[in-house]
Sequence to fold (503 residues):
Amino acid sequence: MNSDEAIAVEHLSKEFRIPHDRKVTMYEHIVGILKGGKYSYELFQALDDVSFTVRRGETFGVIGPNGSGKSTLLKILAGVLYPDSGRVQVNGKIAPFLELGVGFQPDLTAKENIFLYGSIMGLTRKEIGKRYDEILDFAELRRFENMKLKNFSSGMAVRLAFATAIQTDPDILLVDEVLAVGDEAFQRKCSEKIEEIRRQGKTIIIVSHALGTVQELCERCMLLKNGRVLSSGETGKVVEEYLRISAAGS
Amino acid sequence: MWLVDYRDLIWNLTISDLKVKYQSSVLGFAWSLLNPLLMMLVLYFVFSNIFRFELENFALYLLIGIIAWRFLANGTMTAMGSIVGRPGLVTKLYIPRQILVMSSVLSSFISSILEFAVLIPLLFILGAKVTPNILFFPVVHGIYFLIVYGISLVLASLFVYFRDLNQVWDVVMQAGFFLSPIVYPITTIPAAFLEYYMLNPMTVLIETYREFLLYGLTPSLASLLALLAVGAVMVAAGTLVFQRLERRFAEEI
Fold:
């Protein structure tokens, strides 16, 4: 792997087994065996021989229709799913923004949740303590510091989550359509923050349906369909290709 | 090593777990301490009046057995759901998943220590023979933690695939409660079975607690080493099973 590469993926494949009759209890397994039923399942090829590299400091987009394997790819990069074959090499600290506010406890206060969520996102207690004020100010929730999270509106909760998560100072940011956070003013603040991170030379991978966002942010792009890479390269061309196949498909 | 790298996360998860647990009921913390005491009163009434066990300090004998047992029963039962109960932490980002089991067992561990802490004044009031041997508590409780953590690793990972495991485990725990010397003196076991009876690590463990808490004795080195060996084997086996099953957690939850 070259040192100027942030992520290198080689021949990545992932298959899901979708059982015809999903058994989730011992009882169902025993009944199944007694009835002489077979464990039959469909195979679903979510990713098929996917290879690509993302350079350091690049903003890279992944686009494609529903079910094309975008989210599976992101989850493998995040380390949540294991690939069946192929190699993923990651150079640096990854922060997955697949969902904001993972692990929030509604029964705890905003303050307690900042410490909890911050440590889930990989910060030490000391680091969170140091950035605590900044987080509250960015989220504009100083007044609600000691309020329980269950009394927050969903917009407030997601602001708190974004403000905390953004403090993790990652080398590589994985983003899955989470840029639409809060009201318009806060969204602008988020975009500015993302832009700032980009300027700092961090690597960002964005999975999105919003072609506008991708065109605006990404230098390079990859188009997935049915788990295969249809094209990759300069964003304009790839988006064009995507529009062409979706027009042909419908 | 994940244990060191993620110590802040483990601690934060444990603390927030405890906070939520003790906030959620009105009596909160007090209730969790009242529970073993009330259970002791019921069992004391039943077993000293109906079965007529003649045992010195039977109330404390019962209470030590119950509190010791509760760590296993509550600890494994809660930890079993620790993976399934936090789907976001499994499917949306990566943290070593044994952290979820570890922090769940840790919070039960702390609850258990608090229960033992309440026991100590009762030891004096009800006339136990309190000696410096009581200081063996951290050693024995630490070994007990390993045993519970090892079992919990197996249960939590299997529970992802078999969602009725809690029903089965509930029955196992009920059986274990009566197969261990909690509510009856060990002398009621017929001599012919005693050899097999002592193979239950919980028997050795509970008897060890009573030795240094109730009778003021030094626990035997042989029992301590045997328990430590059980703990080490449990953690090793649990880790092995957990790592095998962990790979598809995110697909199954």
Q: What stands out?
A: Chain B has a mean pLDDT of 92.
